From TrEMBL:
Gene3D superfamilies: Chorismate mutase (1.20.59.10). InterPro entries: Chorismate_II_sf, Chorismate_mutase-related, CM_bact, CM_dom_sf, CM_II_prokaryot. SMART domains: CM_2. This is chorismate mutase. It is an enzyme of class 5 (isomerase).
Length: 118
């Protein structure tokens, strides 16, 4: 089944007549804005890491840098605590993103090796 693209809950009540549904719609509009911002921020981060991947391939640096990751995890966990966000969740999210970045770095490096061999 295809997803319902609307914000409207599957109910016969309308937001105009039900304050709870009006509030739900308002909150969902905020969530949609925040999700859009997250996607744009992530795209910007990946543009930046693609540049890092090319730089690392040119300089023959390894795709992963575990000591940098250790510092990032500590920093993000502290930012999460300050923002009242679960630091374990913040760490898992960062690990998920970095795993994808390393996959990109490896692909860029493999491509550079293929190209240099001719
Ligand atoms: O800073 C780097 O060296 C990167 O390659 C970027 C990045 C990241 O996504 O933040 C990705 C892989 C490394 O292990 C560490 C950090």
């Amino acid at each position: 089944m295809s997803p319902d693209p609307s914000n409207t809950p599957h109910t016969s009540k309308s937001a105009a007549s039900d304050p709870a549904l009006a509030e739900l719609e308002r909150l969902r509009a905020s969530i949609d804005n925040i999700d859009a911002a997250l996607i744009h921020m992530l795209a910007e981060r990946f543009r930046c890491t693609q540049e890092v991947g090319k730089l690392k391939a040119r300089a023959h640096l390894p795709p992963a840098d575990p000591s940098r990751e250790t510092r990032q995890i500590e920093r993000l966990r502290q930012l999460a605590r300050d923002a009242h966000l679960d630091p374990d969740f913040a760490e898992k999210f960062l690990a998920f993103v970095i795993r994808e970045v390393i996959r990109h770095h490896e692909a860029i490096a493999a491509d550079a090796r293929r190209t240099s061999k001719g």
